[in-house]
Amino acid sequence: MNTTDYFQLFSALAPEIIVAITALLVLAADLLGLQETPRSYRMSIAAGLTTVGCAGAVAWMFLNRTTGNWHGGMFVIDPLNETVKAVILLLTVFTAMLSVEAKFTRHCGEYFALLLLATAGMMFLASTEDLLMIFASLELVSLSLYVLVAFDKSSRQSAEAALKYFLFGGMSAAFLLFGFSLLYGLTGTTHVPRMAHKLFTLGVDPLGTVALVMVVVGFGFKIAAVPFHLWAPDAYQGAPLPSSAFIASGSKVASFYVFAKVLLLGFSQLGWGSDDSAMGGWMPLLSIVAALSMVLGNLAAIRQTSVRRLLAYSAIAHAGYMLVGFLALGGEAFASLLFYVTTYALTTVGTFGVLGVVEAQVGGDQLKDFAGLSRRAPVLAACLMVFLLSLAGIPPLAGFFGKFYLFAAALKTEGQSLPFLWLVILGVAMSCVSLYYYLQILKQVFVVEADERARPLAVPFLAHAVVVLLAAVIVLLGCAPTWLLTPLQEAIAELGW
Length: 497
Hints:
about 500 residues, 20 helices
């Protein structure tokens, strides 16, 4: 590799380098110059540096447009993964802003450094088509998130949630690495597109089937799909609120994107197995996982009194909806999946933003803690209504169009006679179920009277601004979904998928 090639690689890696340098800068600024200052000031400075760093990374990507493939797919730049990385950086900025008023730690620099390192891992995850790089990036993300979940040292719940998350995450990494090793043994390559050609040439192979199951199990833990979901409710409830918001948003975007790329690029020819056997096909397997996730997630959410746990089971159900997009091969389905996961992530961050204000002012996340919120903080209550109705799929909000495009793509599957009609019907039915428990929260907000001694909530300006902005984005993407969907479709079309 000559000097010019290294310069091109450095230029392509610049967004990730900017984020990594920002992490070191935040850590150094906090440790060297801000230790004696108030915590709120340190959090504000760290959040400001994080925002500047993420904005710089986004600006570099869109002012220095480039495409390329380095070291046989180890690092890939194209319009689609740059869009995904921009979404991840945006979610990081919102998470940083929601962290400013948090009081769960005095280690401000370390917290924001881990947040940025997790972001860098997610960006690498979106920019690779190599199994080794995928695994290394996943581990960088996972290790950062394990520590973020345990960051509240005064909370026993936080430590317990982190331990469960770590144990389940370690097990998922073992499954994933075992599956990747089998794939390498069968194909002799770690490059996903070349691996697909070798797997198609080999046809149905028992080791290939085992490898496929291992990969699905490994990624199933990352996306919290049934039956690999057991860590999610405890992590959502025990982690510091900004950490929960980031796991529910940025982590979901990166994990679903790379999982979809591995299946659609690496196993696209083996969706239904061979002509004479269903062996080796991943579509029947994912259909079952999607159905179980939708049913268990929604039915378990009905029983919850903690809003955090309710959102965790809701996330499991949404993972089931998103898996439907995996089953409809093609660029249109992939664009619909990315639209859905992006709008879901933005909605979830907004919901956690409202939840953070309620927890800080009222002292809990139980349903009863939201009683009379419409009179104590009317703007927050209106935004929460937008978020929850979008999650339920009510038009004309972004969540409705996300489900509509996803289910429509599943019904257009070529080569089969509406194979996923039952799954779409189940998804619509479970969406109706989800409306019930979302309305339970809104009942507390708008119908139930607050305690007579309850006073109006003192909402921090930054949290107020983030929540209102996210609510506006959800409404706008509901009224004009093509603003996001069309660029995604064009980016996918350029790749020829």
